[in-house]
Write a structure and sequence with these properties.
By secondary structure, the protein is mainly alpha-helical. The protein is built from 3 helices and no strands.
């Protein structure tokens, strides 16, 4: 019953929006890591600080990107 109801509720639009959003999430994570990685100066302490900063920034940007795409897809 669960699989049948899931298959009935799932539409192609949901799958496409999920794929598009996940691609943008991957880009945000990648670009944030690269940007913060280029800011590393000094030794291992700086690497740790920039890694933490990269994670926090990426999480924030993923929320913003998710909000933007969800808003766009809602009105389409």
């Amino acid at each position: 019953a669960y699989y049948k109801q899931t298959a009935e509720a799932l539409v192609a639009k949901d799958l496409m929006t999920g794929m598009i959003k996940s691609a943008f999430f991957a880009l945000v994570i990648c670009w944030t890591g690269i940007y913060r990685g280029f800011q590393v100066e000094g030794g291992a302490e700086s690497v740790g600080q920039k890694t933490t900063s990269s994670v926090v920034t990426a999480i924030f940007l993923i929320i913003v990107v998710d909000l933007a795409w969800t808003t766009l897809f809602y009105f389409m």
